[in-house]
Amino acid sequence: MNHLEKGRYGEEIALDHLRSLGWRVTEKNVRVGGGELDLVAFDGDELVVVEVRLRSVGHLLPPEDTVGPRKLRVLVRAGRTYVDRIVWEGPWRIDLLAVTLDGSREPQVELFPDIAAGWPS
Hints:
The protein is α+β, with helices and mostly antiparallel strands. The protein is built from two helices and five strands. It is 29% helix and 36% strand.
C-alpha cells in the first residue's frame, strides 16, 4: 500500500469506529485555513474535528505521538476557520484517532479526546 492508500484505509477504519460509537460523520478531507480536517463529526451535540493517524507496528513513534505543536497549531487554526465558515456557535473540539496496524491482527484503534484542551484561543 502506498502512502495515500494507507491514509484512505486509516480514514475508513476511523469512520467505522466513530459510527460504532454513535457519532454522525458529516465531512471528510475538508481543506480550510491552510490545513486539512480529516473528518468532521458530531458526538451528540458537539462538533468534533478528528485527526486520523495511522502507523504500522515498528515505526519509531506510535500514531498518537505524531501530532506535535506545529500540527496542533494548524488543526486549531483550520478548526476555527471551519466553525466560523459554517457559523457553528456550539461547542467543538479536536480529537485524535490513532490506528495501529500489526499485520497479523485487526487494526488497533484508540480515540484521544480534546487534544487541544488548554490551547490558546
